[in-house]
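Suppose a colleague, Dr. K., hands you the sequence of a protein chain of 41 amino acids and asks what its three-dimensional shape might be. Before reaching for any lab equipment, you can write down a predicted structure in C-alpha cell form. Begin with the sequence itself:
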Amino acid sequence: MNFTTVPLNVPDNVYLEEFDMITSIEKVAYFVKENKQPAGK
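The predicted structure, expressed as C-alpha cells, is then:
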C-alpha cells in the first residue's frame, strides 16, 4: 500500500494499491456534514 504522493516502481508480480488519505478524510468529513443538516434541507 502506497500512502505517499510519490509513484512507486514495483515488479509486475507485486500488487500496489495507491491510497490518498487526504481525499478519504475529505469524503468522510463531507458525509458527516451532510448527515448533520436539519431535516428538510
